[in-house]
Specification:
The complex is a heterodimer of chains A (209) and B (272).
Chain A lengths: L1 H27 L4 E3 L1 E7 L2 E11 L12 E3 L8 E4 L3 E9 L22 E3 L2 E3 L7 E7 L4 E6 L12 E9 L3 E6 L23 E6 L1
Chain B lengths: L2 H27 L9 H34 L18 H29 L14 E8 L2 E6 L5 E3 L3 E3 L4 E7 L4 E5 L4 E5 L5 E5 L5 E7 L11 E8 L1 H19 L19
Parallel strand pairs in B: 1-5, 4-10
Antiparallel strand pairs in B: 1-2, 2-3, 5-8, 6-7, 6-9, 9-10
Helix pairs in contact in B: 1-2, 2-3
Chain lengths: 209, 272
C-alpha cells in the first residue's frame, strides 16, 4: 500500500514538473528578433537605422510552413524588431505575396511615415487601391500604417516582388505592437486567425530600447 | 426594555446617524466616475452618486443591526439554547422594513429608467451645421477603431476628434467580429456588431484628451485595442482639424466606399 502511494506521488511530481517545464518553455519561446542595423545617415537630426524583411505567401519553414509571414534575412518567420530609441527606421519590405484586399479601405492610405508616403519599386505613393493590398505594416500606437501592394500575376522577377520602402520616427523606449490589417489568415474566421494572431507571422512587436 | 439595552440602541443609532451623514457628505463631494466630460457622463455620475448616497446609510444600518443582534443576543457557550418559545416576530419592524425596501427599489427603478431614457434619445437628422447633431461613425475591426465623418465628405480618421458643446450622434458597427466601443469618460459604451448599426448620442462638455478602448474580448490583441488620443476640442479647432484630415485623406477618398451605417467586405476580400 505504502509503495503504491509513493509511486503515485512520484508520478504526480513528474507530471507536474513536465507541465511546469512545458509552460515555461512556451512562455520564454519567442521568434528570432530582427535588430535594426545602424547607418551613418540622419533625418531631422535623428539617426537612421535599417530594417529589411521579406513578406511571403508561405513561410516554408517553422511550425506553420503554409502561413503568410514576414521573414528575416535568414528566411525565418520573424516580427520582433529591435530598434534604438529616438531614431528613424528606414524600412524595406520585399513584398512577394499576391493581393487579398483590405476589409477597411482606409488602410490603403499611407500614414505616419515621413512625408506620409512610401516608395514602391522606387515610385512614391501615398495610397494604393485597397483591393490590391496584400498586407499592411501598421503600428497603431505610433500612427504608422503602410499598405503593401500585392504582386501582380504577370509581374516579372525571380521571385516577383514589390520593394516597399518608407521611413518613420521611433519615439522613446517602449513596446509597440504591430499587425497586418489585411484579413490574410486563410482558412480562419474572417481571415483574422492563424498567422494574423501569431507573433512571428502577421503580428509583431517593435521593441524600442 | 432594560436600560442597558436602550442605551446600546441609542449609541448605535447615534453612531449610525453620524457615520451616515459623514459618508453622504463625502460621497457628495467626491469626484466619482465617469466624470462630467459629456452630458451622459454627468448624468451617469449623478446617478451613481445618488445610488451611493442612498446605499451607504442602508449598508450602515445592516451592519448596525448585525452588531446589535450579535451583542444583545449573545449567550455563553455553556448556556442552554433559548428554544422556539423565545423567538418572536416584530410586525411593526417587518412592515417598515418591507415598505421602505419596496419604496427605495421602485423609486430607483423609475429614476434609473428616466435617466436611461433621457440618455438614449437619438435625434433623427444629422448635418454639418454647428447647431445640429454631428454624426460620427465608429468602425471596429480586429484590432483598431477608425472613425468616419459623413457630414464632412465621409473622410475617415484613425483617432476620434469631436467638438465640444455640440450633440454627437455615434453610429457603431464592426467589420469582423463583435467589439465594444467604450468611451469611458464620455459615459458611452456601445457594442460594435457586424452588419449592425448601434447608435448613441451625447454632448461633449469638457475639452480634453481621453481614452477609448474595446470592452469585448475580440482576439489576441484585444488588450491593445485602445487609443489614448481621443479628443474633445473647441468648435473652431474641430473645423481646422477636419479640414486638415480631409487633405490627408485625399489620396484614399476615391477608394472609400459610400458612407453607410453598415458595411460588408468587398467582393474578393477574404470572408466576403
Amino acid at each position: 500500500m505504502r509503495l503504491r502511494v509513493s509511486f503515485l506521488g512520484l508520478a504526480l511530481i513528474i507530471v507536474g514538473a513536465g507541465i511546469a517545464l512545458f509552460v515555461t518553455l512556451y512562455l520564454i519561446k519567442t521568434p528570432p528578433a530582427v535588430t535594426a542595423s545602424t547607418t551613418s545617415n540622419s533625418v531631422e537630426g535623428l539617426p537612421v537605422v535599417n530594417v529589411t524583411l521579406t513578406v511571403v505567401a508561405a513561410a516554408g519553414t517553422g511550425p506553420h510552413p503554409n502561413w503568410v509571414a514576414y521573414l528575416n534575412d535568414n528566411g525565418d518567420p520573424s516580427t520582433y524588431i529591435h530598434a534604438p530609441a529616438n531614431s528613424v527606421i528606414h524600412m524595406t519590405l520585399n513584398q512577394q505575396d499576391t493581393p487579398t484586399g483590405l476589409r477597411n479601405e482606409y488602410f490603403g492610405l499611407v500614414r505616419g511615415t515621413i512625408g506620409d508616403s512610401m516608395k514602391v519599386n522606387g515610385k512614391t505613393m501615398q495610397a494604393i487601391d485597397p483591393t490590391l493590398a496584400a498586407h499592411t505594416f501598421t503600428i497603431p500606437d505610433l500612427g504608422v500604417s503602410v499598405p503593401l501592394l500585392g504582386v501582380d500575376a504577370n509581374q516579372q522577377g525571380n521571385p516577383p516582388q514589390n520593394v516597399v520602402e518608407f521611413d518613420f520616427k521611433v519615439p522613446g523606449p517602449g513596446l509597440y505592437r504591430w499587425q497586418c490589417f489585411v484579413p490574410c489568415g486563410a482558412g480562419t474566421l474572417y481571415g483574422n486567425g492563424g498567422p494574423m494572431q501569431t507573433l512571428g507571422y502577421m503580428a509583431g512587436e517593435l521593441v524600442v530600447s | 426594555m432594560p436600560q442597558r439595552r436602550r442605551n446600546l440602541i441609542n449609541i448605535i443609532a447615534a453612531t449610525w446617524v453620524l457615520l451616515a451623514a459623514a459618508g453622504d457628505i463625502a460621497l457628495n463631494s467626491l469626484p466619482l466616475p465617469p466624470g462630467s466630460a459629456t452630458d451622459i457622463a454627468g448624468s451617469e455620475t449623478q446617478l451613481i452618486r445618488i445610488l451611493a448616497m442612498m446605499a451607504w446609510p442602508i449598508f450602515l444600518a445592516v451592519v448596525a443591526g448585525l452588531v446589535f443582534t450579535l451583542w444583545v443576543n449573545r449567550v455563553a457557550p455553556a448556556a442552554a439554547e433559548p428554544g422556539a418559545a423565545a423567538l418572536r416576530g416584530n410586525s411593526r419592524l417587518q412592515t417598515t422594513w418591507i415598505a421602505s425596501s419596496t419604496t427605495i427599489v421602485l423609486g430607483l427603478a423609475v429614476f434609473g429608467t428616466i435617466t436611461l431614457a433621457n440618455d438614449t434619445t437619438v435625434p433623427a437628422v444629422a448635418h454639418a451645421e454647428p447647431n445640429t447633431p454631428l454624426e460620427v461613425q465608429v468602425i471596429a475591426q480586429q484590432w483598431y477603431f477608425t472613425y468616419r465623418y459623413p457630414s464632412f465628405g465621409g473622410f475617415e480618421s484613425a483617432h476620434l476628434v469631436i467638438p465640444a458643446d455640440r450633440e454627437i450622434e455615434f453610429h457603431v458597427t464592426s467589420l469582423d467580429v463583435t467589439h465594444s466601443f467604450w468611451f469611458f469618460a464620455a459615459g458611452v459604451k456601445a457594442d460594435a456588431v457586424p452588419v449592425h448599426d448601434n447608435s448613441v448620442d451625447m454632448q461633449p462638455l469638457k475639452i480634453g484628451t481621453y481614452r477609448i478602448e474595446c470592452s469585448e474580448l475580440c482576439g489576441i490583441w484585444h488588450g491593445s485595442m485602445s487609443d489614448d488620443n481621443a479628443q474633445i476640442v473647441s468648435a473652431g479647432d474641430f473645423t481646422t482639424w477636419a479640414q486638415q484630415q480631409q487633405q490627408l485623406d485625399a489620396p484614399i477618398m476615391k477608394y472609400l466606399p459610400p458612407y453607410s451605417h453598415t458595411y460588408v467586405p468587398a467582393p474578393g476580400v477574404y470572408g466576403s
